[in-house]
What we know:
Helices cover 37% and strands 21% of the residues. By secondary structure, it is α/β, with parallel strands linked by helices. Strands 2-1-3-5-6-4 form a six-stranded mixed beta sheet, with helices on both faces. Helix 5 (100-107) packs across helix 10 and helix 10 (230-245) packs across helix 11. The chain starts with a strand and ends in a 5-residue tail after the last helix.
Amino acid sequence: MTKKFVIFGNPVEHSKSPQMQNAGLKYINFDGIYEKHHLIDGNIIKNIFLENNYSGANITVPHKEFAYENADIVEGIAKEIKAVNTYILKDGKVVAYNTDAPGFLKAIESFGKVKNVLLLGAGGTAKAISLALKEKGIRVTVLNRSEGKLEFFKNHNIPSFSWENFKPDIYDLVVNSTSAGLKDDYLPAPKELLEPILKNASFAFDCVYGKITPFLALARENNCEIKDGEDMLLHQGVLAFEYFTNTKADNKVIEAMRKGLRGEKIL
Length: 267
Ligand code: NDP
């Protein structure tokens, strides 16, 4: 029987996950279909998942925390992050994972060895990235516009600051995990604060994908090697795909999924 997979989000219309996942399924001849579901109430995510006979799901904004709360079993680093982006149905139970965190680590592999990271932003993505880095033994400092969201990081012994009380150090990688630059032309922190940091850094990564954000443009002006969030989206998707299909995705499958993500033909 054809297996059904889905992405839940609000909004979800813009999501590139279906074209990426369907490209992977097609490439390995898996009898499955991956669709979009505009979910308004995250509290009912598990019921909707079960009622529609989905075998697996991805979860995007704003439902990752609801998905965590509703899962029967939470695996791995997601237990600490308290937000999940992947569900699979296993022996009648909804098992949940966070693949954003390992997806991010995979995406920064191309920079080589990184030791000290400045992470801009303190939202759900920053939680996943900071714990992934910490688990890898990479030093991470969080810098956010406001104090409000810093408690999580303090509770995990991750140095975290708002713009007002921040004293910069030297970092080899600066990551933008804020939504500044997504739909506007803002930098994620004031230019006078950011520019000297980027001057001393080697690499800059933006979780936003498909464009050179003002952050990446400033990093490039200051001679950083830059990278947008496409690989993060790809690799979180590849890891979810492996859970969905119970197969290991080799480089050919990964490239098929990248083509799918970019809207290119795969076969
Ligand atoms: P959240 O809404 O949870 O967090 C947003 C963060 O951005 C907050 O810390 C907020 O600060 C900060 N922020 C928002 N606007 C500004 C601004 N103008 N200047 C400075 N700081 C700002 O978002 P998420 O963590 O879920 O997502 C963050 C970004 O990461 C989004 O752009 C999203 O598209 C991208 N993303 C990419 C992925 C990928 O695979 N490539 C995966 C997941 C996310 P404050 O606390 O002060 O409000």
